[in-house]
Amino acid sequence: MSRPKKHKTEHKTESKSETKPEPKILIVPVMQENYFVLHDGTVIKDYRELAANLATMSDDAFSYHVNNDKNDFATWIHDIFKEEELAADIRKCRSKVEMEALLYKWLFFRLEKLHA
Question: What's the burial of 71, exposed, middle or buried (CB within 10 Å: 0-12/13-18/19+)?
Fold first, then answer.
């Protein structure tokens, strides 16, 4: 009588030093209920649109969403897109021009990674 053979099983464990893979698209699309709606009613679907809207956004609209007490754009980017590093950098921005430049720079480097 022969004994059943024991099957060697391999368990793959993730190393803490492994980083999550970069998405294969520039920006992950989100559902309509996660769009950002400015207090003036303007709808922004992603942070690429946020960058484009900053150039024409009124100072009142910007200061409504970004002030000493809050940064709604950073919170949105963190909570909806799960982009913690970008959100932390956006949280430090205090002007439309600074935020716009940071977003375009981030998008440029993200695009470069996709085409590398």
Answer: buried
Written as six digits, the tokens of 66 are 């970004």
**Dist. CA 105–CA 84, nearest whole Å:** 16
* This prediction's pTM: 0.75
The 3-state secondary structure of 46-110, one letter per residue: CHHHHHHHHCCCCHHHHHHHECCCCEHHHHHHHHHHCCHHHHHHHHHCCCHHHHHHHHHHHHHHH
pLDDT along the chain (116 residues), means of 10: 46 45 64 94 94 95 96 97 95 96 93 78
Give dist(CA 13, CA 89) in Å, integer: 32
CA–CA separation, 33 and 45 (whole Å): 10
Task: Break the chain into its structural domains and give their ranges.
Answer: 33-115
* 3 state SS of 36: strand
